[in-house]
Amino acid sequence: MPKPYKTPEWETAGFNHIWLPYTQMQTAPLPLPVSSASGVRITLADGSELIDGIASWWCACHGYQHPHLTKQISRQLDTLSHIMFAGLAHEQAYTLARRLVSITPKGLSRAFFSDSGSTAVEVAMKMAVQFWSNRQEPDKRKFICFRNGYHGDTMGGMSLADPETGMHRALNRYVPKQYVFDIPNNGTDLAALAKSLKEIRETVAGLVIEPLIQAAGGMKFHSPQMLAEIHRLCKQHRILFIADEIATGFGRTGAMFACLEADITPDMMCLGKALTGGMIGLAATLATEEVFAGFLSDRLETALMHGPTFMANPLACAAANASLDLFEQEPRIAQIRAIETQLQEELRPCHRLKNVADVRVKGAIGVVQLSNASGEYILALRQRFIEEGVWLRPFSDVVYIMPAFTIATAELTRLTDAVFKALAA
Ligand SMILES: Cc1ncc(COP(=O)(O)O)c(C=O)c1O
Predict the structure, then answer these.
(1) What is the distance in angstroms between the CA of the first residue and the CA of the last residue of the chain?
(2) Exposure of 138 in the CB half-sphere (CA atoms within 13 A)
(3) 223-259: b or e for each residue (b if 16 or more CB lie within 10 Å)?
């Protein structure tokens, strides 16, 4: 039986004035009113609790309200909460840029800050197109992307999503057309991709990929070897390789960054989500010195014309620096390995369920792919999980767990149990 959630006054008063994301507002059920969150526990307005299995779209990697994060943000709040980032500089942003460069693949040397993952992707696309146009190669302005990919909801990011299965299909005629390929599975597919890249290379600015795991487009995995091969092809054909690590970055796949597992340095890398430990919106587009140098001249026209008002916000940068402290001071990578082992063991029984096509785990990501999943079934599963006291949001044909890295063993078992029970029902 569904729990009788008490609807607080602010929700009933405000609901007719709010527009929710990815939501058919005519038919959607009311969202659950949250009063607070701590660790991996979300407290609802009626005092009941849910164990969070998806860390607020994968960003709250240290759990909610981690004391080090809240303390460092509060300290920053006392001195400088915001300042424009043109003509003025501040310590948190410069320190963060230096620290990001020191932990990402060797060769990335510059960080451009923005305010959301989608914007970080837009910035990378602008950088790529202008890099070539500054070099008098203006025909190199299209992008290569992959089926099942997702890179955000802004115009450029949408153009890189899967045009058939992606969630922006209604806008297909409006967004720019890009080259869409399958991520190769084997040598034959790779040879076919190599042939295509050779044919189109003079029209291509960059290739954008979610390294190792395509997340929002279906939680699909590929190998570090294949990633390295795709990177090699880009180098060979003078195509800028853009790693969108917005979902995979900061430990999610088991390494600090997925590109490190393939031992590659992308020309650009997009970061967001867990960058601030999920505390405040912040994103970064990192670039190599070669890309950066492509914008240098004595003319403004060759400079990067981008500058969001809240770029490098000091509170957000303080949160990101504090989050990096935690990666240094607490055993995050060991925790991720332990989550991986536990997910492998505890999701394995799902293999024998009738409607399960695949179970796969990598790092702190556990995926159960269904053979058949109608929209109604997915909505029913979501409701079922709430009744089980867990917060999981299956989509398309996947049920997935991507918890905070600080989740306790017993809490993770509550999540895997709920998945098994709901799918077995
Ligand atoms: C790989 C990837 N790129 C870009 C984005 C967009 O990030 P944001 O939602 O912060 O704009 C997402 C969000 O899910 C993502 O997973």
Answers:
(1) 14
(2) 1
(3) ebebbebbbebbeebebbbbbbbbbbbbbbbbbbbbb
In a domain, 1, yes or no: no
| One-character DSSP codes across 233-268 | HHHHTT-EEEEE-TTTTTTTTSSSSHHHHTT---SE
What integer pLDDT is reported at residue 1 of this predicted model? 44
- Residues above pLDDT 90, as percent of the chain: 92
* Same domain? 120 vs 252: yes
The binding-site residues of ligand 1, defined as CB within 6 angstroms of any ligand atom, are 57, 116-118, 121, 150-152, 210, 215-216, 244, 246-247, 272
| Residue that is last in its domain, among 329, 351, 378 | 329
Residues 381-398 pLDDT 10s: 999 999 999 999 999 999
Total-model pTM: 0.97
pLDDT digits over 197-256, tens only? Answer: 999 999 999 999 999 999 999 999 999 999 999 999 999 999 999 999 999 999 999 999
- The string of pLDDT tens digits covering residues 27-73 is 888 899 999 999 999 999 999 999 999 999 999 999 999 999 999 99
Q: Comparing 30 with 110, which gets the higher pLDDT?
A: 110
What is d(CA 248, CA 271) in angstroms, rounded to the nearest whole number?
Answer: 9
- Supply angle C-alpha 220, 225, 229, rounded to 5: 100
What are the backbone angles phi and psi of residue 359, rounded to the nearest 5°?
A: -125, 125
Give the model's confidence band at 165: pLDDT under 50 very low, under 70 low, under 90 confident, else very high: confident
Answer whether residue 314 is part of any domain: yes
Residue whose CA is closest, atom 7 of ligand 1?
A: 117
CATH number for the domain spanning 26: value is 3.90.1150.10
Strands (E), 63-116: 108-114
Which atom number of ligand 1 is nearest to the Cα of residue 58? 14
Report the alpha-carbon distance of residue 314 to residue 320 in Å, rounded: 10
Helix (H, G, I), strand (E, B) or coil at 228: helix
244 in active site: yes
- Ligand 1 centroid from CA 160, angstroms: 12
